[in-house]
Structure formats: C-alpha cells, structure tokens
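User: Show me sequence and structure for the first protein, then do the same for the second.

Assistant: Starting with the first protein.
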Amino acid sequence: MHLHILGICGTFMAGIAALAREAGHRVTGSDANAWPPMSTQLQAQGIELMSGYAPEHLQPAPDVVVVGNVITRGNPAIEYVLDQGLPYVSGPQWLAEHVLAGRHVLAVAGTHGKTTTSSLLAWLLDNAGLEPGFLIGGVPMNFGISARLGAGKYFVVEADEYDTAFFDKRSKFVHYRPRTCVLNNLEFDHADIFPDLASIERQFHHLIRTVPRSGRLIVNGADANLARVLEMGCWSETEYFDADSGWHATETDGGFELHQGERNHGAVTTPMAGLHNRSNALAAIAAAAHLGVLPRQAADALSRFRNTRRRLELRGEARGVQVYDDFAHHPTAIRVTVDALLRQAGGRVLAVLEPRSNTMRLGSHQAELSDSLSQADVCFVYARPDLKWNAQAALASLADKLHVAATLDQLVAAVVHEARPTDRILVMSNGDFGGVHQKLLDALSTSGQT
C-alpha cells in the first residue's frame, strides 16, 4: 500500500510514517517545513520528502492520504484530495486501525511531561523484555527513533489532546482506546482550539470514558484539575502518584526513595533533573507495574534512562559556555525547566525564549511568563514578527534582567555579549528557532578573537 502523508515532518506524523514504513508500506510525504530530528529520521528510513503541498505530489494517486492536523481547508493538496475523491484518513485513526487494534495500549496524556513519561515507560517495558511498540513526540535517546511497531502485545503512545484533523475536531487521544492510561497533569493550553480550561477537561473525560473497567488509570494525585475531571465519572481502577496514598517519593542525593503507600521500595537513582521529572518517573513506574514490572526492576532501568532529544539536551559548549536545548513552551514547563537547570551545579542560567506556539503567539499566557522566567539570571525573548502582544511591556517586571530582540541576529549578539565562562544558556522553543543553538555556539567560538 502507498501512503502519502500531508504534514509528515510533525513529530506525530513522522512517527506514523516510520510505523507504516516498518510495516512494509511505501511511504511518501509533503510538508511546508522540515527540520531535525524528524526530517533526518525520515530520510534515514528511505521515506521521500516533498517540499510544499503541490497537487502533483499526489500523482499518481496513492492508496490513501493520511492528513495531519496542520492541514486546513484551502491547502492545495487537500483541495485536490477532495476534488478527486481520493481516500483520506487522519493520523490517529490510521494508527488506531492499523497498529493499535488488538494490542494493550498504554497512553500518556497531560499538558506537560508526555514525551518524557512515554519515553521512560517504553524504556522500562523494553528493559523488562516486553518489546513494546511506541509512538512518541520526540526521539528517546535510548532507542534513537520516535516510533517502532515492537514485537510484543504492548504499545506506548504519547496521547495528545490537540484536535485530530480539519474534519475531526475531537482530541487525538480519543482514538487510542488505552487499557493503561496515565494522566500527568492538566492546565489550560492550545488557546487556538480550546476556549477555556473546562473544554479541555471535557476532552480528558472523553478519554477516561474509553478506558475499560478492567483497565487502569494512573493519575497525578496533586492535580486539582484532574480531580475535577474524575468527578465527572470514572469506571476503571485508579492509582495515584504524587500522593501519600499511592506512588510517591522522598528526595535523596542523586535520586529519591520510592514509596507505594506505606511500602518503601528503596532508593532510586535518576539522571533526570527537576521535580517534574521525578513525577514523570513515578507515573512511568506506576504504569509499568500494571503490566507486572517490579519496582526494583523499573528503578534499575531508570538509572540508565537517557531521556529524549530536546529535553534539557546539551547541544554544545564554546569558550566555557554551555548551550542547552529544551522544548518548553508553556509557562509551567518554562518554570520547571529553569528550576531543573538551576538545581544542577554550574554558573548562571541565561534563559532564551521563543514564544512560538499558537497559544504563546496569541498572548494567552503572557501574564504568567514573568514569574516563569524570574528564576533565570538573565532573560532573552525573541519578539517574533507574528507575536500578538508586546513582550517588553508584558515582561516589564523582570526589569534589568530582560532583553527583547526583534531579530535572531540581535538576539544572538545580545546573548553572546552577556555570556561569560561557566554560564549555561537555556534555549526554549517548540520549533527549530531558526537554528539559534548553533548560531550561538558559532558566535561564542569566535567572540573575542581578533
């Protein structure tokens, strides 16, 4: 079968492409933008990428067109699909029908931590010999790929609440029908499609409705919004993490003591920094336990976990200054990421933020950003041309530590001028940020030379 994927370089759709290719299908795809790690991963798998959305990409006609949720009416390719009556399907529906059917699905949902928790859960199951399949919105460094079919009956999927496609406005995760479902946390996000928090809570409850009575929910016991969702109705066994009655942790040097209610499972060593990652680890350990993975077995695997790319990933060092990359693009994620880096030994933290997501560009979170960035020693914000709010005015409370740049060149110059040996530059964006990481490393390398 020949699949052509529209929007193939998005993290989710790239995973669909990889799974289809592994299953023996011919896969091609179109996208307006392509950047690593997804573009390089696809090319390495022999998947043909086409730039733009020309109708000619669909000639001769593929057997099915898989439509990403970035595709809207008016897109030349989708207009051609509709005019010609070509078969089309959303990515989540294709996944559900061709990969997830008949398998024990472990879905990880939540506003934050989905990628890390999904990656960790897949690693815990793989370490236990269960050979899971997975589809993750990033590249787990333990595996080097974002998706695989797996040999076992288990499949781990990062379960996103964003809408499915232009013709299916339900959240993607309602397609997955999990038997084990992790609910990490819940906050307002995606202001471009959700009018308020209550509408997102309703989608999360739709997910809960799909979990069978014999399944299990793994729920953040410290999240009041999730508690409100469960009050709408729950029909499955429920276990909690970050709650004294369920899975919880007490901090130690280099890790934490793992507890399950009153039972102490001993010390756990983790390479992941930050309290948020401790919560992610608890969620993954609890979910793996549903499949019989023993806590000590999970703890051993956790000590060898390498996280995913773009999660506090050290991209390089120049003239004694380290440059980190992180996907953080929500105020809560920004705050905990800055905190996690501060908890590691080192010099000052220079936060560099691109407000790139639809929600960020619309300004829905501008009132919370100052607090999120306040722990950083110096803050640099890229005022993109499409930003709908005044970054200088909205973040004025940061006072002298704030620097707003209108262009990438100005941004790089300002950061390099400020940076000094032992500093750590933390770059945060949910896109490629114009390759600013390498621009910073190159500029740092040449700064001060005559």
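Switching to the second protein now.
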Amino acid sequence: MISVMQKLGWFFRLEWKRYAIAIPLLTIAGILEIIPPMLVGRSIDAIQLNDMTWEKITVTLLQLAGITIGVYIISYIWIYKLFGGSFVVERMLRSRLMRHFLKMTPTFYEKNRTGDLMARATNDLQAVSMTAGFGILTLLDSTLWMATLLVTMTVLVSWKLTLAAILPLPIMAILVSIYGKWIHKRFTEAQDAFGEMNDGVLETVSGIRVIRAFTQERAAEKQFADVTQNVLHKNLAVVRIDALFEPTIKVLVGVSYLIGLGYGAYLVFHNELTIGALVAFNVYLGMLIWPMFAVGELINIMQRGNASLDRVYETLGYKPDVPEPERENTEPVERPGRIEFRNVTFRYPSSSADNLTDVSFVLEPGQTLGIAGRTGSGKSTLIKQLLREYPPGQGSITISGVPIERIDMDRLKSWYGYVPQEQFLFSRTVKSNILFGSSDATDNELDHALAMSAFKKILRFCRTGWKRWSARKA
C-alpha cells in the first residue's frame, strides 16, 4: 500500500489542492454522521425515563434534518473532487504513454507485443485510476473513519463493550494481508494474459486475408479459444482470491455483532449501560461494517493498482534506442546539402550478421542515387539509416557536413519525403490521409501534390470506369 502511494506521489503533489479539499470534507462528513445515533440513543433514554416532550422531539428532528442536508452537500463536493482525480491521473498517464509510444523506435515494438501495450494503456490505467479515487476513499474509511467510530464508541458508550467487539479485527487484518499478496501476483499474471489475447486478436484481424486464403479459419479459432481459456483461467484465479474477502469480513463482522449484543445485554442487565446507549452502540457497530469491508477493498485495490502501475512504469521506463540530441549538442543546419555515408556498417539488434558493411557514397544536391539489389540485400536498411530508426552502427553519416546525430530529430525528418514499404491508411477521408504529413497545407498545395503524384489521373480513370460500368448495368 505504501509502495503504490509512493509511486503516485508525483500526482498527489501535482493535484494537492484537489485532495486538500476532498479529504477534510470527507472527514467532516464522517464526524457529522456520528451525531445521529447519539441523538437517537438519548431520545430512547428520554422516552424510557418519561422525559420526552414535543419540543425535544422537534429539536431532535430538526437537528437530524440539518445534519442530513449538510452531509449531502459536503459528500457531493468531496466525491466530485476525489473521483475527479482518478480520471485526471488516468488521462495524464495515458497521454504520457502515447507520447512515449510516439518516441519509440522499431526496436521497442519488436520487443513489446502490440496487444500487451494496448492492455497497459486501457485495463492497467483503469486499475491505477481506481487506486487514485476509490483507493483513497477506502484508505481513509479503513483508518480515519474507523478510528473516529472506535473513539466515539469507547468514550461516549462503553470502552469495555468496544474492546470486546473489536477482538475479531486483528484476525481480519492478518487474513486480508495474506489475500492481498495473492491478489498482486495473480492479477499481474491475468493482465499479462489479457495483453497476449489482445495481441492475438490484432494479428488475426490484420492477417485475416492470409488466414482465409490458406483456409486456416478453424486453426485460428482453436488458437484464439486456447488464448481466451488461458485469460479465463488467470482471471478466475484472481476471482477465487477476491471472493474470499467478503465472506471473511462478513463472518468476523457477525462475530462482532454477537459479542456486542451479548455483552451489551449483560452490561444493561447490570446497569452499567443504558438501553439508549446499547442501541447507539449497535448503530455504530453497523456503521463499522463498511470500514471493516474497506480494509479488504483497500488491500485488493491497492495491490491491483500496484501491479498495474508496475506494468505501466515498466513501459514508460524503456529508454529510446535512438535518443533525441540535447539542445546544447545540436548544430544548426539551415538547408540540407550534401549527404555523405562514410564506411557505414550496421547490424539490426536482433541480427547475428552485419546488414550493411562498409558503405560509402556522396550525394550532392540535385543528384539522384538509384539503389538496386536482391531482397534482403539492405536497400531499405540503408534508407532507414537516414531516418535514424535504429541506433547508429560504425562509420559516419553527415548532412551538410554535420553528423545526423547532432541534428534536431524533427528538423531532420522534415527534410525527407519517404514512402515506406508497409502501406497504411487511417480510418479517415482520403483528403485527411493526403494531408497527414502537413495538416496546415493550403488547397493549392494539396492540388499540386495530387498533380505531382498523378492521383488526379487515377481519380479520373476511376470515375470513367464507374460511368462505363453503370451504363452497361443500365
């Protein structure tokens, strides 16, 4: 529990105003909720002593109504502030993950499955969000609220009865701590399995044409069924431990009730406690049920959040293979000039042999260089050296005499017009896809790009073909 709070310390410091409002108001609301049982107990004692009047009843009812309205208003504010924070931390971490993904080179995506990355950006962040919202609520209710109730029961009712009624609490604390350790381990395994399932779905959808072409539908179904069965098995392992929390707490709360009623009746019989005080005590004992449940929920949520936060921070902690140069280490290059490769040797991180060996050439402005070779000879690899997608190998690559490692990454890539071998279209309009690299381009620039790429000719051809086909159908 302390571990996950330390890991989220940066967020609590950033949003301290939100929690500075929510926590005191939550405390005030809890104190106000303690007053009604006291008023009810005193009213019962007054009735027993024939000392109750309409004036006292009216005052008591007005007090109860005022407390109810006050608790309602205060609760609305602290709920808005506290649970609003849970959405804020989820959005912040998701934004950090997206920025991190955009900085990563192909090596990162070769080492991490896409489905697992999606799981970390969705399910894991939801678990972290629960920790920053509901987790803080259970933390306060299982500590401060429980302590307030116990002090009230001890001071205002009977310390003997309170001491007897809380005897099951240490047993509950030990059992819940054991359950929490099991939850952390099994929830991590379940999240890993979920990420593997996500990755399988993405691969199946992306390769559906190949699967159908080779009539592998049944094999894909069986493979997916095995993966989902593994996810089910891992989540059921979590549920089996999760299901232990409530019965354990219910049994121990029931024992506390039995002690409270039995020993309370004994104290009333010996005139050490009034009936009104016993009624108030049982109301407080009923109010104590949620803090007892909150202990279990606290351990459960914190362990889930801790496991998920470890997975998220593991991703965020991955250092880029090709870091951007520090501002003070960059050299200004106004316009790209001569491109020179000098004795460049490169090997992919996953390769056992050099993919480029001692490559040297000079390309002056205005010149064209054609690169030919069989598949796998290194043509794309050579171009990727200019894009800085992988860590540099041996030798040097310079533009206008400046090593590309010392040129600002955004400026460097703004000079290139690159068409990758793997085509991809975003689920947007054709115009949006064309303007993807330059969203602020004018209509004239768009028309120029369409003309230069012969795209207008293609559109014209498609329209002509469509008209001819429609005429034949008619």
